[in-house]
């Protein structure tokens, strides 16, 4: 089955410094009916700040609690191949089929380095790979050409998630390959629709699950104006205020406010949202909510 | 008089490769009643792609056509001090009091280099300086500390325009100095309001002049919710679609569509908005317009 | 005891994918008599590509095999505080007193984020901290001011290792603080001497241990010309050819050639030196060796 | 005639803020017999800080004073196409055939933008183009693929000067195209030889003209060891000390010391070499000189 649709990246809830399983359950209950899947333990899940054991716990929790028809994509971002393989094998054992894999993010990468690393990870785990093209966190830049070379060298790569703003890359990948392409940045998500993405791996669909699904479905069905109406009415006010840069703490602050998460804790080095930021985010959220209801 | 309020950056209209004075007149007629001034020949005005003589023509046109109560801030971005001084003296002769000055943008800069360059420019022209902190185009990064050192070393610096997303810098400058601070990036402009800016040097106020003024006035008068209502209803749909990265060509495409500019031409290296991008921008604009009227 | 002198960063030898203890022993035997210590499991040690268990093995090996009068500085670069603490406590138990700690390297950092992360790591481990200012691998830039704020906030920071080329920062730190400062980039190491460093955490001292010691001692004793004579005669030919960017694979290729390491293996994502690069590095090494002997 | 060999980039001498023609004459007299040409008004010539009129003066001076058998390559780096064309036409009138052209350096560039800009400049001036791939000053990164696309789109591009350290690009360009490739960074120039460059557009050949020529000739004639002997003996001590980052001020300080230039003045924003830097550079120069004579 091809990966398609709204597969949001989810934050990892903490309580007193520990993974908070109950909040995971609440989040799934609230959002799953309107989604096509989850990306678990990605950047938004603060995976680099978790231990291997914690990452397994989060993945297992989602594997257990998510409805079976939803896709789970497990974030395998790492700098140690051996640890990434251990995580991938554990996820595979739990029934997960796909992994989101960025370039390793410590040493400056050449294309050959990324091919070597991702190829070995794919081979050892047997997972389908969504390659995560994230120049900001990985300091590694891809052109359409280099993404195509990578996906030809590593045949397990079935999809690409893009966070940069080079919409031309999305168009080239769709024209020249069979790769699925996912938008990866909330702030430009409608422009990603316009560029032809197959789905979205962003945060907005767990903030406004029904509205995001409706927005996406209208777009896919050719009703671009109604789609943009929902986008600009409900989603944009929030999206414009919850970043850029601190989307994780602010989303957690909102989820705490809504009672979905038991706390707004982040894991160092991320700092929790302060009162001012929380106030800004709530303004955006409430405005989106109001405008949605006034429809 | 302190620089304050909505002093948008304006694109330079071209017609068949030449400066288009008539479009300048139309733009001023349409927007001036709702503004506090204009930034002329900044980045948005494509100043680096103009000749010295063209830059003078644009400045003179604004000096002649703008209502006298409006502030004119002249962009003096350059890599050649002598050329920048020539432009500044010409502007001063035309009655202009303030200049927007970024770091010189070819060689990697140290703070001392910027102090030397900006100091000499200020002294030779006698203009008040709005220092333009633009890390993307100048490859030069400032902390609050280094901005303060710069403004202490160059006493003509009266204000700072910031395009980066380090809102903490705005707060520090306001707390520790008497500098005016202007928001410089449309996409985050409401968060700049929240951080305490004294005004806005962005594009949005010439797209929706009345709405932007109303939005800003509500904010300044303490009615944050009404301000955000206008922002998210009218301004955001457009702002979310006209960038990031190609705000100049898309703004020109809109102005051509609206009959304000006689053409959507840009000057190389900027490429004109293509049909797809124009279609995206018009969607954003029309949505903003509709939601404004439904108020 | 203050950290001082030549405390090189050492590559981690592998054999068939495993840590190669015997090569560690050979490296120590060959180099220890001429050194003040070792930095173990830093960038050069490919620490981000090792598992926690492997990192402990390497540290324990050095703790066991190094002469007691040498300082061991353990690299704690990580993105997960909990893992870093585990490593630090294990090192402390093995008698190690100092850790080299860079900014966490996945999410973009603010100064407050680095203070939070490094402060917690220092407190939990009780180790003295050498803060590693490495903009390339951590995407985090420090001015002298921000390094001073960091060291004031985290009193366990006793030293700074600098890899960037901002020699003015070295001078400011020496003038304004009691921090030790270590040069961190081979290619500019003599200029780091000139800027006043207290020692060197680079690779060259394990390539030419006697020559580097002699070079440093002459400099410290005020004989700059003799120091530079040794530097340019013996060290520079190698340094100019073993980088920039692939110093780790090329050093390993040299050590394999010299019989110090049993293999030139690297850990993915680093790729081993190819024949051409090895040939270049050997040219540099042999030239340095010859010119040393002709002295 | 193909561009080949040692065509150094030359600093522009100033005296009391004006172009110093006499120093240009002295520089040519001293160095021309050992060179294949000059790059005039490039980065090293501080061209971005000169007025159009000054750039013409420098070009005319070299056109007048250089021996006719030497190639002159005129730097046309600019952000204004019209100004660049004016300079290029003036150079063509003075008999110059080739221009060194970087990406325009203010706005972030796409490949299409660079093709548009450079193509128009080539067409309007009729000059052969050496494309200058300089990521640091232009914020624009090229892969081998994108350089090839550019050179296919702009057929006047006959050569590429590279300043980055991606030696694989040099090899790919030589294997896949007929372009000449020039090394562009002193510090890695021997590694550029090894990667197969056709020549060098760097500073070293005007510092040690005879030694550099001898070094290059040995390399081209297959005597790599003798070439590297000269390189490491004579050139490296200087090269290791005159940068990185402030090669222009330090070269001028050396030329002043040697009596070649009447002053060590730079043009703002570059700051002149201070006493400490001059002392460092002279140490490197004198060491290189001594080791050359002891040969």
From TrEMBL, chains A, B, C, D:
Binding site for pyruvate: 44, 201
Active site: 132, 161
One Pfam family matching this protein: DHDPS
Keywords from the UniProt entry: Lyase, Plasmid
Cellular component, GO, one term: cytosol
One of the GO biological process terms: N-acetylneuraminate catabolic process
PANTHER family membership: N-ACETYLNEURAMINATE LYASE
Name this polypeptide is given: Dihydrodipicolinate synthase family protein
Originating organism: Paenibacillus rhizovicinus
């Amino acid at each position: 089955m091809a990966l398609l649709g709204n597969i949001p990246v989810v934050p990892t809830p903490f309580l007193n410094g520990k993974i908070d399983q109950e909040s995971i359950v609440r989040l799934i209950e609230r959002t799953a009916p309107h989604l096509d899947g989850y990306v678990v333990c990605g950047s938004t899940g603060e995976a680099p700040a978790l231990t291997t054991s914690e990452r397994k716990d989060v993945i297992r929790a989602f594997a257990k609690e998510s409805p079976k028809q939803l896709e789970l994509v497990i974030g395998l971002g790492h700098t140690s191949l051996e640890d990434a393989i251990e995580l991938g094998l554990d996820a595979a054992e739990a029934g997960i089929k796909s992994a989101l894999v960025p370039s390793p993010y410590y040493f400056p990468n050449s294309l050959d380095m990324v091919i070597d690393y991702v190829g070995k990870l794919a081979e050892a785990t047997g997972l389908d790979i969504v390659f995560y093209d994230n120049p900001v966190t990985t300091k590694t830049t891809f052109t359409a050409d280099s993404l195509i070379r990578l996906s030809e060298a590593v045949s397990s790569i079935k999809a690409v998630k893009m966070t940069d703003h080079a919409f031309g890359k999305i168009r080239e990948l769709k024209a020249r390959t069979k790769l699925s392409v996912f938008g990866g940045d909330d702030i430009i998500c409608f422009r990603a629709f316009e560029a032809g993405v197959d789905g979205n791996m962003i945060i907005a669909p767990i903030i406004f699950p029904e509205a995001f699904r409706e927005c996406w479905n209208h777009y896919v069905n050719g009703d671009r104006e109604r789609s943009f109406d929902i986008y600009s009415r409900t989603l944009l006010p929030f999206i414009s205020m919850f970043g850029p840069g601190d989307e994780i703490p602010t989303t957690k602050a909102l989820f705490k406010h809504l009672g979905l998460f038991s706390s707004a804790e982040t894991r160092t080095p991320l700092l929790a949202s302060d009162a001012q930021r929380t106030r800004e985010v709530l303004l955006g959220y409430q405005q989106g909510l109001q405008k949605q209801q006034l429809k």
